[in-house]
Amino acid sequence: MQLLRARIKNFRSLRDVSIDFEAHTALIGGNGAGKSSILKALEKFYSTSKVLDQDDYFGRDITLPVEIELTFGALSAGEQETFESRVRDGTLTVSRVFDGTASSGRYYGSTLQNPDFSAIRAIGGATEKRSAYKALKEGTAAYAELPSVTSAGQIEAFLQEWELAHPDSLALLRDDGQFFGFQNAGRGALQRHTSFVFVPAVREASLDAADGKSSAIGRLLEIVVRSAILQRKDVQAFQEEVTARYRALVAPANMPELGELANRLTGDLKSLYRDAAVGLTWRDVADIAVPLPAADVSLSDEGFGGPVDRQGHGLQRAFVFTLLQHLAKTSHQTPATEEETTEETGQTTPLAAPSLILAIEEPELYQHPTKQRHLASVLRGLSTGSLPGATGPTQIIFGSHSPMFVAMERANEVRLARRLKSADSKFKHAHLTSLSLANVASRLEKANNKAPGTWTAATLTPRLHILGTELSEGFFANGVVLVEGRSDRSALQACARLLGLDFHAAGIAILPVEGKLNLDRPYAVFTELEIPTFLVWDCDLNKKEPVANTALLHLADAHAKYDEPLSTRIAKNYAYFEDTLESTLILELGNDLHSQCLGEACEPFGLTPSRETHKIPEVMHRVLTCAKDKGTSSPTLEALVNAIWLHLAPDEIQL
Questions:
Q1: What are the pLDDT digits (tens) for 336-384?
Q2: I need a surface site. Which of 31, 72, 235, 568 has the fewest CB within 10 A?
Q3: How far out from the chain centre does Cα 415 lie?
C-alpha cells in the first residue's frame, strides 16, 4: 500500500491542509513554512502516544481537535481483504483524532453510511437513543419502514439493514472509532501493512548505535542477529546441556536443605496444630536463557574506523538513514507474521513486508555538495526500487532547502509551503501549492496554438529534462526572473547593484535558460506553483523564432498583443526588447562610451573586451559605474530593474 494523500487540521501551523503524495515527494519552502509540521503530523499518526503538547495545537488552542487523515492506495489483495469494510474505489482512508478527551488518539475508518443516522449513532444514553430513533421513524416518511425496538441494542442492526437495502442514500462518513475493535488493534492492523520511519534534522547517531533494548541498533540486533543465533543447533544444544546440568544440580537428592527446613517448620507448627505439616519443594527449572554479548558499533571511512560519535556528522547521519530504514523493513518479520497459511492448499507462504515510508528532515544536512547529489540519487533509487539490494520501493517524503534534491523534470513531486495570514486568526497558517504536468502541458499548448492533446505530461517530461539544473534554484526563491542568457543576468544584477536594490536579500533569483526557446516551460512551471515570476526575452526584430515570441507573450499575458510597429515594452510581470537587451544597453550608453567603459572594466582582470565579457557581473557593474561617472545611464535597463523589484519584492523598502 502507498500513501496517496493526507488532510491535516489544527496541527501546529497546519490549520487545514491537504497534500497529495507521490512515490517521491519533496516538501520545500522557507524556514517555518510548515514542512516539518507535515512530517511530524505523519509521525503522530503512527505514534503510540495518545496525547499532544499544547504547542502542537494551532494557535495553542487545545479546544480545537487535531485531525490527521491519511488515504492509502495501491492496496494488495491481502490488504483489501484485511480492510474490506473500509475500502472504497481501491483506497483506504483512516483518520486519527487528538482532542484531549479520554478517547484522544483514536483511529477512525470511513464507511458508507446514511448521514441521517449519524445523530442517532452519536448518542450514548440508551433512553435518548431510543427516543431519537423513534422520532426519526415516526417523523420521516422515508424511514417509516424501520422496525420498532424494545432496547437500544437493537438499533444499530436495524440501521445497518436499512443501509444495505438503500445503497443510493449512503455517503462515505467516519465510523464510530472502533477501527478493528479498539485503538491498539487498529494501529496494529495498519502497521502490519505500512511502516513509517522519521529521521529528524537533529538525531544523535551515538544513541542509536548503543546496544540497548530501546536503541535502534539494539532492536535490530535482537531481530536479525540474536534471534538467528538462538535458532542455531549448536547454541540450542548448549542451552539444553546447561539446563539439564542445572536441573540435576538442584534436584532434591542433591539439595536436602529444602527438606530439612520443611521438617523444622513442621515441628514448630505441630506445637500449635498437631496434625499440620509444612511442605517445601523446588519449582520446575525453566530453560536457562543463553545471554549473548553486547555489541559495539564503529564506523570507518577510507580505512579509518572509530566510535560513531567520533565520525563526521555527514557519515553519522547516513548511518542513521541506513539503520532506521533497515530496522523498519525487518521489525515486522517476526515468526508470527512471516508466514500465512492458504486455506485452499494448506501451504504456507511468506507474508509481504509492510510498505515503508521514509520521511526525512533536510537530507542535505552535513553533506558535501557532491555527496548531496549522490544521496539524492540514492533516495531516488529507493523510491523506484531500482537501488541494488533494495527489497522493493520505499516511499520517500522529505523536506529540503537544497536545489540538489529537486529538478524541473520532476516538478510534479514538489510541494511548496508558505505561511499566509489568516482572515479570522492572528496566527499565520501554512498553505501548500503543487502542480500537474498535464496542466503545464495544456498551458503550453494554448500558448503555442496547438491542438488539445498535442502535448501531454508524458511528452512534456523529456522537454523539461533538457533544461539546466541551475533552474532548480527557482523553486526556493521568493521571486524568479527568467532571462535568455548569462549576459542578461549580469546586466540586471549590475544595474540592481548600482540602484541599491539587493536582489539576493529579497530572495530574487535571476536564472538564465540558455536560449529563448527554453523560457516557456520554466515560466509555466514556476507560475503553476504560484512563484512570482518575471519573464524577459528578446524579440530579435522578429527575425529569429517569431513563433516563440508570440507564445511567450501569450504565457505572460493572454490578452496582450505586440505593438505595430514592434517596440520594447516593460509590463508588470514581463518585458521584451525590440531587438535585444544588449543592443538596447549599447544604444543607450552610446557605442563609443560603451567600448571605452568595457575596456576599462576588463583591464584589471586581464580580459580582452568582447561580448563574452558581458556575462561577467563584476565587469558589467564596472561598465555601468563608468558610464554613470560620465553622466550616462541606460533608462530602459533601470526601468526594467525597477519593474522587477516592484513585482517580486513589493514589501521591501524602496531605496
A1: 444 444 444 455 444 556 688 889 999 998 888 888 898 898 889 888 8
A2: 31
A3: 9
Does residue 463 sit in helix, strand or coil?
helix
Alpha carbons within 13 angstroms on the beta-carbon side of residue 570 total: 14
Buried b (16+ CB within 10 A) or exposed e, 453-466: eebeeeebbebbee
Query: Options 3.40.50.300, 3.40.50.10470, 3.30.420.40, 3.30.70.270; which CATH number does 2-114+170-193+354-415 get?
Result: 3.40.50.300
Closest CA to 35 of 402, 509, 409, 307: 402
Q: In this prediction, what percent of the chain has a pLDDT beyond 70?
A: 88
Phi, psi of 96 (to 5 degrees): -125, 130
Per-residue model confidence as pLDDT tens digits over 300-341: 877 777 777 777 777 777 777 676 666 656 654 544 444 444
Report DSSP state, residue 431: E
Beta bridge partners of 357: 196, 395
Q: Cα–Cα distance between 163 and 168 in angstroms, integer?
A: 9
Every domain of the chain and the residues it spans? 2-114+170-193+354-415, 115-169, 198-230+292-350, 467-648
Q: What distance in Å separates the CA atoms of residue 355 and residue 383, rounded to the nearest whole number?
A: 11
Q: DSSP assignment of 44-94, as one string? A: HHH-S-----GGGBGGG-TTSPEEEEEEEES--HHHHHHTGGGEETTEEEE
pLDDT band at 390 (very low <50, low <70, confident <90, very high): low
Question: What pLDDT is stored for residue 329 in this prediction?
Answer: 61
pLDDT at 26 over 90: yes
C-alpha span between 266 and 528 (Å, rounded): 91
Checking if the pLDDT of 181 tops 60, the result is: no
At 97, the pLDDT band (50, 70, 90 cuts) reads very high
Other CB atoms within a 10 A radius of the CB of residue 602 amount to 18
Q: Which contacts qualify for 45-52: CB closer than 8 Å, 24 or more apart?
A: 45/70, 45/96, 45/196, 46/187, 46/190, 46/191, 46/196, 48/187, 49/105, 50/98, 50/104, 50/105, 50/183, 51/98, 51/100, 51/104, 51/105, 52/98
Q: Measured between alpha carbons, how far is 508 from 487 in angstroms, rounded to an integer?
A: 17
Give CA torsion, residues 81, 82, 87, 89, to 10 deg: -40
The pTM for the full model equals 0.81
d(CA 598, CA 555): 35
Kindly tell me if the per-residue pLDDT of 189 is higher than 80.
no
Write the DSSP assignment of 345-408 as a string of letters. T--EEEPPPPEEEEEEE-TTTT--HHHHHHHHHHHHHHHHT-STT-SS--EEEEE-S-GGG--G
Q: b/e string for 229-257 if b means 16 or more Cβ within 10 A?
A: eeeeeeeeeeeeeebeeeeeeeeeeeeee
Whether the CB-CB separation of 358 and 396 falls below 8 Å is answered with: yes
Host H or E run for residue 258: helix 257-270
pLDDT band for position 24 (50/70/90)?
A: very high
Provide the residue type at 435 as one letter: L
Distance CA 492, CA 120 (A): 67
Residue 156 cell numbers, joined: 444499530
Alpha-carbon distance of 183 to 180, in angstroms, equals 8
| 438 SS3 class | helix
The whole-angstrom separation of Cα 397 and Cα 524 is 25
| Chain mean pLDDT for the chain | 87
pLDDT of 622 higher than 60: yes
